[in-house]
Structures are given as structure tokens and as C-alpha cells.
Amino acid sequence: MTQRLAALPATAAALLLLALGLVAAGTPSIADAAGSALIGLVAVGQLVWHLRRLRLARLLLAPALGWLALCLLSYLLPEHWIAHATWNRLAAALAPGSHVNDWRPPLLVVATLTLLALGPLTRTRANLGAPLLLASAALGLAGQLLEHAHAHTLLPQATDGIRTTALACLLIGQLIDTLGGWRATRGSVRRALWPSLLLALLAMAFWHHQRALSDHQLRTEVEAQGQRLADRLSDEIGAHLAAMQRFAASWEWHAVPPPDAQWQRQAALYHRDFGYFLNIAFIDADSRIRRVHPLTALNRGVIGTRLYEAQPAGRQALGHALAGEGIGSTEIIGLLQGQPGIVHYLPVRRPDDGDVMGVVGMVVGLQSLADTLFRRVDPRAVALTLRDGERLLAHQGPTERQGPWRHATTLTIGAKALTLTSRPTLDALLARRSRLPAISLTAGLTLAYLLYLALFARHRMVLQHRQVRRSNRELRREVRSRTRLQQEVEWLAEHDELTRLPNRRRFLQVLAEQAATRPLSVLLCDVDHFKLVNDRLGHLMGDRYLAELGRQGQAVIGEAGGVFARFGGEEFVACLPGRDADAAAAVAERFRARLAGAGLTHEDGTPITLSVGIASLTEGPLVEDELLQAADDALYRAKSRGRDRVEIAPPRALPCAGA
Ligand SMILES: Nc1nc2c(ncn2[C@@H]2O[C@H](COP(=O)(O)OP(=O)(O)OP(=O)(O)O)[C@@H](O)[C@H]2O)c(=O)[nH]1
């Protein structure tokens, strides 16, 4: 309860931060709003979870997880399965003009949020992997903080400070709330967490390395592609210079000015092949324009114009060519066609004396040249610019959502060095970007999660097995002690504890077992004046006497093949199967004699004596009570006749068969 309350402020702080961030941004971009909404959804889900409205929390977190799953898929699925453009179309359907990157946070943020959203769904249960999810989320967050040092990557993985802090608040809230729940299984959590966390860390390090490698490769490709493009354009420029020279050389055998029809025909061919030759003119030695192609209304007006006066910017280049010093090229000048361009002047010499009889003027429109050169490049994938220093001469492709890398190279047109810059668009780069790092990260984190589950379950099983073994051992010990007790109880039920002889009950069983044995004698023995022993020597000594008496009797009766038992008090009984009365009397006498020598004496030194009554059965059925009664009667007689003697019950006193 206390933990739950302590977790609430952290989660509430996350929501507050997000709200403040949105308010401070004024009109936030779709990316900002979507990122905050996603974190906010998880935060509200977690807040409700802290309040233990688990069902509602699940309802709130499910859409967030669905959104995150889509983001993850957009990072993982190969381009030929779902193209980057398709994801962009999906994004545009959600909000016109938006792109997939507006709706999906960086991969590391997606991973952290997914792990945080899964936390409440596992409900703090260590056996469902909650500790690893939280620890991996912490790793993801740490990765985002470190990511600020790697801003040169294609897509930085860190989100802004407010959202990163909000994520940290969510993490702290969850940690406070869940820590207590793992106390019961902390041993297993510790065992499972470290190896799997190490695997998660390795997955992140591997992802980072792979991403840097793949970005480096992509960047190298961009540079190579830019260089290939520059080479192609240089070739094209080389081709048009050669064509210009061929064209100028073809007029050396003609009159001045060349015949107009022929001029128009020849120039038209070049104009068709090199569309950026906006005008092709023949200028005589007096710098007057004599022929021009195409014959547009504008061009008709310039025929006869003296270029020295009409075009001061080109005077030097024209003079250079007319003086026979080679091709003269102007600086970049504004053309009548409304675009920047260069005019090349190529001298036409008389074949006999080599004098310059005129020049061919080629007006190259730089925008048209760029259009021709750029035509082979997809304007959606690469933005191209042609610059003269800072001055933009031509541009093709988008100006927004450009990738972070550009390739610049120098193109020389005549004497002019221009800069050609190619910059692939972000979407083109993302479409070409390898999915392998994202797959590595996702697979690594999943493996770490599975490893955690396996190690945790294994450790729990080991503990349970240990517990079962301990219980088994205790159970076996209990069974042994109960068996011992049972045996003792059983023994006590049939024996006398003091003398360790069979008791009355056992004796009666033994007697019953001998029911068919004839002759069968029973001896009832009673210690004489035993009360005196107790009174004078004490009960303890009386007990010792009884125990010794038992041993002596057991020895004598056992020797005779009988059973000796304690009948009660100081009374003993013996059963002698196969012995008649006389044989039993002889055994009784042996017992008395042995007792006399056993050293058991009264206080005055007189030996302890014994009175014995014997009853024998030679025929007929055994009736135990009657046989014992007869022996008791005989004992009584022995007592009354002075004790320390053996008396035999008269045979007639015994029951007869059928009597
Ligand atoms: N120490 C001890 N005394 C016992 C035990 N069982 C019975 N006695 C005693 O045995 C004595 C029996 O006394 P009595 O029955 O009066 O007989 P007696 O003194 O032996 O005299 P007679 O049998 O008539 O010769 C009593 O004092 C009992 O207390 C026992 O287990 N231990």
C-alpha cells in the first residue's frame, strides 16, 4: 500500500511533464504530439495500475502496445515485404502530410516504452519476467542518454529531454511499486536477472555497433553514388564540348557567312541532341551576329547586332576567340531566356591561311544543362543542386526531409568550376537502410527475456526440489520414529516394562497356543513377604528384586522349554508344555533353589523365598481360567502351609473332558 502510494507521484510527474512540454511547444508538430501521446497513454495506464484498477490498466495499455508493435514492425519488416513508402502512405492516411517517422519514436524509445508497458501487464510477477522488463527498460533509457553523443547517425535514437525525463519518471514509479513484490523470490530473481541482463546489454551493444556499421556503409554508398553521378555529368559536359568543336570545325570550308538554310539544318541537329545549347549563332570578324538558330522572333531581332556593343559581359571572351587565341567562354551571365548561362565562342579559321573568319557562338543554358544532366536521377530520392560559389544555378528534388549526408563535387564547364551537390532524401535512405540492427536488438532482448524466464523457473524448481527432499527426509524420520513408537507400544502391550518378561495378556496367548499340548503345566509363583522388602528396603530395591527374580525365573523356565511371565504385582506365572505335575514341580524346585543363591535377602539377611502352586492338564480340553484357578488354589495352600514351598493341585480338582 505504502509502495503503491509512493509510486503514484512519479507517474503523475511523467504526465505533468508531458503536458507542460506540449503547452510550451505551442503548436507542436505531429511527431511531438504523437510521441507525447504514446508516452502519455502508457503513463495513464501505469497510473491506473498503481491504483490497482488492473482491468482498466490493461484496457489502456493494450492500444499503446498495439501502436508500439506497429512501430516495431515498421523497423523490422524487410523493405520488399512492406516498403517504407507504404508506411508513409499509412501515416499520411492518419494525418495528411505526415510520415511514418512522425508516428514512430526512435527504436530505442519504442523498445523502452514497450518494456515499460509490459511491466504492468506482468503485474510485478517475478515469474513472468517483470524484473528483466524493468531492468531492460532502464538499459534502454541509459542508451538514450548516451545517444546524444551520436547525433551523426541517420536517425538519432534519443527523444527530447522532457520525454526522456517522463520515461525516467515512469521507470521510477514502476520500480517503487514492484520492488516489494519480488522480495519473496529475490534469490531466484538475482540468479536469473544478472545473466539475462548481461545478454540484454550485449544485444544493445551489438545493435549499436551494427547500426554504426550499417550507417557508415550507407554513407559510403551515398558518397559513391554522388561521385558516380558527378562522373557521368563530367562525361556529358566533355561530350558537349567535343560536339561544339566539331560543329565549329565543320564551317571552316564555307563562305562567310555560311548559307542560312545549311546553317539552320546543321544547327538544328545539335540543338536537338544538346537541348541546353539554347542558341547557336555565327558571328563574323566584326562581331556581328549573321546566323542564329533557332529562328525565333526574339532571335530574328538580334541578327545583325554587333556583340561588342550589345553584350559587354561577353566582350573579352569574344575578343579572345576572334583574335584566334582559342575558345573564349564568358562568366556566368543572365541570358535572355531568363536563366543563367555561359556563352562559348569557338573560332572558325580559313583553311588556307588560318585566319579567323568568324566565331560560332554557343549559348549554354545552365538550368537546361542541369535539367538534361539531372534527368536520369529520381527527384524523389535525391536532391541535386548546382552552384557557382554561393549562387544557386539549378535545383532538382525536394527541399524538405533531406537526409543528413550530402556529397559535393566540382564540375568544370569551360573555365568555370561549379559545385554539384547530391543529397539523398531521408525516406530514400530509410528505405535502403539495413533492418539487421533492429532485428538484432529485438531478437537479443527477446532472448534475454526467455533466458530470464528459463533461469528463474529452473531456480524455483531447484528450490522446490530441495524443499520436497527436505520434506521427504522429515517424513521418513517421522515414519521411523512412529514405527519405533508403534513397536514399543506393541511390545509394551504384551510385556512388563520392569522385568521385561511377557505380561499376563501375552502369557494367556501363549497358553492358548498350547491348547493341544498334553501334558501342560502352569506354575503360579508368589514372592513371600514381599511387602516387607518394600517397607524396609524401599520400593526401588523392591523393583530391583522383582527384576532379578524375573531374570532367574526366565533362565530356569526357559531352560525347561517353558514361558515365564509376570502375572501382576509380585506374582509370576510359567507355562511348561509337555511337562506333567511332577516334572513341573522339579522345575519349580530348581527355581526356588536358584533364587536362594541369587543374593536377594530381607533386611535381616534372610533370603527371599517363593511359594509356587502347580496345576497340570494331562487330558481334556484346556480352560485357561480353570487351570489358573487350580494353580492359584495350590499357591494359596503353599502360602497357608508356611510359604517357601511348592504345592500341586490335585488332579481331581481339574476339569475333565465332558465333565
Ligand atoms: N516394589 C514393588 N512392589 C510391588 C510391586 N507390585 C506389588 N508390590 C508390592 O508387593 C506387596 C505384596 O504384598 P502382599 O500382597 O501383602 O503380600 P506379601 O507381603 O508378599 O505377603 P505374602 O504374599 O502373604 O507372603 C505389596 O506391598 C505391593 O506393594 C512392584 O512392582 N514393585
TrEMBL record:
Signal peptide: none annotated. Its EC number is 2.7.7.65. Residues 289-373 form the CHASE domain. It is an enzyme of class 2 (transferase). The keyword Glycoprotein does not apply. Residues 518-651 form the GGDEF domain. Keywords: Membrane, Nucleotidyltransferase, Transferase, Transmembrane, Transmembrane helix. It holds the Pfam family GGDEF. CDD domains: GGDEF (cd01949). It catalyses: 2 GTP = 3',3'-c-di-GMP + 2 diphosphate. The chain crosses the membrane at residues 35-52, 59-77, 436-457. GO terms for molecular function: diguanylate cyclase activity. The keyword GTP-binding does not apply. It comes from the Bacteria. InterPro entries: CHASE_dom, Diguanylate_Cyclase, GGDEF_dom, Nucleotide_cyclase, Rev_trsase/Diguanyl_cyclase. NCBIfam families: GGDEF. This is diguanylate cyclase. It comes from Halomonas koreensis. The lineage of its organism: Bacteria, Pseudomonadati, Pseudomonadota, Gammaproteobacteria, Oceanospirillales.
